[in-house]
Amino acid sequence: MQGVQQTGAAHGASEELQKITVFMLKHQIAGLPRNFELVHEAFTGGNPDLARELAALGSRPSQQALDQIGLKHRLSAHCGVSAERLQDEMLKTLTRLSDQLSLGVTQKRAFTNSVEGVIRSIREDVTVGIDQLLGELDLLSSIAGDMVKAETVLSSDVARGLESLKAADRAIRASQAAMKRDHLTGLANRISLFQTLEEVHATASPAKPSALVLIEILDLPGLQHQYGDEAVSKLIKGLAGIFRKAIKKHDFIARIEADTFAFVFEGINADEAHIIAERLFTTAENNLVFASETSPGVGGLPLAIGHAMAHEAADPTSWLAIAKTATMLARQNPRQPIIGYKPGQRQVA
């Protein structure tokens, strides 16, 4: 049974990739990774606004138009491109300021050399006439005036350059933050989850346990087909808000796939993780009423929940994998929608 489901999942992923490839070829969209992400989100991300905006571009959309949509919807690859562009602009600004400062130093040296030349002239020829001395002083005054003008321009350019650097730094920080956020819900995304798993797993132990809980919405494609993308997008946003309010401020929550939320709880054991999973399940069930084609009876939103402990996994990737396995088993057994991983022969509880 499991092999059949895996084959079906692989076939579905292949069909999805084929649709994306055909769409990009038909509309002559460059095969860049960020463009694949954009089209994938339009096809499967449950974001009708993005899909409409992409369709409105028509055939042969410009890369600039595609990038603008990607940035607007905070897709990670497009945010990364934006950060790289801003960093390049910062480097150019720093180079220009460096050149201007070097020019200012050169002008100061020229003025200093002129002053020293006048002083030497006076010392070497004490009989120098007042007219000649005044002429040399006028020359120095002229050089000093030009230098002051250049310094004023330089000061203004430096001030503008610093403001430009500050603005670029703020934009880069915003882009980096957007790369770690799910565009639909505003929650952390998969990138942020992996960073959190690495940090938490590094210090986890039986004495300092931490749990990963995955919650999957069952039959999300069926819900989209029955109710429409916009209604399901609102559902996901609502569910995100419910989950956020149901946990503590320091607990971690992310949306890592179109139908999957992830939670990281530090300082709890497996039994406590199971209790929290039950509470989240009940909270969602009491607040969201939906029916899919595969579950026609109106009731709570169908969910599958799996959880696993950090110290029972070899590394962060394995931690996520065993939590996914527990979720898959919960998906296969509607009577037991919450399953926790246990090491050894009896791997679920």
TrEMBL record:
Gene3D superfamilies: 3.30.70.270. Transmembrane segments: none annotated. PROSITE patterns: GGDEF (PS50887). It comes from the Bacteria. Its EC number is 2.7.7.65. Pfam families: GGDEF (PF00990). It is an enzyme of class 2 (transferase). InterPro entries: Diguanylate_Cyclase, GGDEF_dom, Nucleotide_cyclase, Rev_trsase/Diguanyl_cyclase. Residues 208-343 form the GGDEF domain. It catalyses: 2 GTP = 3',3'-c-di-GMP + 2 diphosphate. This is diguanylate cyclase. It comes from Rhizobium rhizophilum.
